Amino acid sequence: MSVLANKNTRVLIQGITGTQASFHVKRSIESGTNIVAGISPRHGGEEHLGIPVFDTIREAQRQFSFDASVLFVPANGVKSAVREAIEAEIPLIISIAQGVPVHDMLEIKSMLNASKTLMIGPNTPGLITPEEARLGIFPENIHKKGNIGIISRSSTLTYEAVLETKAAGLGQSTVIGLGDDMIVGSDFRVMLNLFMQDEDTKAVVLIGKADNAYEILAAKYYASLSNKKPVIAFVAGEALPYHNYNMGYASDIITHGRITVSDKKRIMREAGMTVVDNMGQIHQILQELQL
Amino acid sequence: MNIHEYQAKKVLAQYGINVPKGGIAYTPAEAKRIAQKLSSRGPWMLKAQIQSGARAGGHFISHDAGGKGGIRLVTQISNVSYETSQMLNNTLVTEQTDDKGKRVNKVYVEAYKEAKRLFYVGMIIDSSIPAITLLISDVINEDIVKLAHFNSESLLRLNLKYDSGITDEQIFKILDFLSLDKEYLRSFHDFLGKLLFTFINLDAQMIEINPVGMLTDKKLIALDAKITFDDNALFRHPDIMKMRDDSEEDDRVLKAQRCGFQYQEFSGTIGCIVNGGSLALEAMDILKSKGYEMACSLNVKGGVDKDKISAGIKIIMTNPRVEGVFINILGGFLRCNLIADGILAATQDVGAAIPIVIRFEGTNKDEARSILEQSNLPIMFADNPDEAIEKLLKQMEVND
Description:
The complex is a heterodimer. Chain A has helices spanning 19-30, 57-61, 78-87, 102-113, 155-167, 188-197, 214-224, 247-256, 261-270, 282-289, and strands at 11-14, 35-39, 47-48, 51-54, 68-71, 92-95, 118-120, 126-129, 133-136, 145-152, 172-177, 203-209, 231-236, 274-276. Chain A is of the alpha/beta class. A 7-stranded mixed beta sheet of chain A has the order 3-4-2-1-5-6-7, with helices on both faces. Chain A is globular, with a radius of gyration of 19 Å. Chain B is of the alpha+beta class. Chain B has 3 domains: 21-111, Dna Ligase, domain 1 (2-Layer Sandwich); 117-241, D-amino Acid Aminotransferase, Chain A, domain 1, CATH 3.30.470.20; 250-399, Succinyl-CoA synthetase domains (Rossmann fold), CATH 3.40.50. Chain B contains 13 helices and 19 strands. Chain B has helices at residues 5-14, 28-38, 77-87, 144-150, 168-177, 185-201, 238-241, 251-258, 277-289, 306-317, 336-350, 365-374, 385-399, and strands at residues 22-25, 44-48, 59-60, 71-74, 91-93, 102-103, 107-111, 117-126, 131-137, 155-160, 204-214, 220-222, 226-229, 262-265, 270-274, 294-299, 324-331, 356-362, 379-381. In chain B, α9 links the parallel β15 (270-274) and β16. Chains A and B meet through α4, α5 and α8 of A and β8, β9, α4 and α9 of B.
């Protein structure tokens, strides 16, 4: 088992003919991902990397059903691509591009709220269930099948977390990059819930950053759970000087009050998470858990 | 992207929001001419145009500036050009700038508007709900982040629906919070409605009117204005993009922006090149635990062009405060070998006189390492950030 995607997940690629999409789709197919079709306007009827291409999702749905769609569309096209996927009732959307306007995300979030679709990203490496499904741009050579779930608010620190599980002699059930942007489709809570229910996940590594209030929401949610698996957490940016806070961070301090990295760490500890001050400590803690 | 107060007021006026009359002056004589045109008797406000709040409480570095701040009330026309000359081409330091301050090269001259009462209005995005949040406070001229941090109760926060705007019920809450009676409903509705429309229409991330003035006819007026736009949405707003003032930005920041990267300055001695903002945060935390600080960081996330990467790396290597460079690349989308090519090209131009430690992981890491090993550059490698920073600090000691 795993969460959200496995080898049977039928994957659609929106924007399949682009350069970056081609590079990564090829690697995903090679690592066993079940990619069934692609979308690329004006390329309908063609084949790309051996995958049939359609102009619209509706047309593709006449022949196929999809469990997930990975968006390789550029930032300014994300809103309409997400809308198309939501209207087609695809359960999971993963959007890779960085630079989606914040107001587009406000609109996307209200569309998502009115639907059953779950969105990961934007600005994410995606999701990977090692040896089964690579939905995004993860470097697949560092992953190994196992029982640690990873949820991260930082693309690159996700890889760091993967390497820590490897150093502990463990592998990953599923690795999820929530996205680096100020507003992303899903926060930690949805993913924590999925990992708590997943039989193959024994512990979760959670990576946060000096940014908005997502880590605090995660801590409060975790505290409320009756059945908890261990969560090992790291929050980057304790040393960040006040005047270097970015816009998103500043605005969530304004709306939520004090949320420094040390506040976040304290609240996460109080919620029962094991919080480390250096990512390099994660593998030791994992080993001590004796999973 | 931020714009100046005078530009923000022009934008607000286009959306029907009441602002004082004013004009922008680049010389003392110009300031006087504008003042005379605005009003025959005054008083006038002279406002230094730098992109920073807390200008009134700031101070100029030079003593010629008369020991006053960057916002001045002038009652005699004869003083307008004198006071303007004190501010122009002087550097203003405020609570929100760093110690270096910002150079004032234009002054906004306004007709002074007498207000019965002043209060703060802000609009920002709460990313965790998410929603647009309206902020109201009786405390004015205070940095809003500080206010929220230390005096959270003095702020009224109301979440606005993206599509339905501000409700009467919310306006009544505001009036109640400010202890105003219901007859102000219409003027608040008008002012805040227009502000929200501006916020949404222009892809703003933050608008602050600090303060709003209440006039005797119950109308509201924006006595100050600050707008921050979403950089990612500027492609939809070419008119706003033209308002960018490059003199507000550090040269290195601009150079990095031209390559599509983010560059940030801090106060330490170690330069850091990463692909992802959080890797810089992580490095900063490790450095701090060892008693060091970062000088600057460059985030080359999304880079696909060798020349741009090389140009970016040069920005760090040529920063005179940088005594050592830590490069941490976790290849995924970005391939490590591209960074190696970029480093090679950069060192051919500017050399490699300071210690460099690199950690490559992920896509094409072995290829990247062998490219640099073959070059015989004095570059060290490490397998993780802790080890990399330790090696770097050790080498920096040797160089001392």
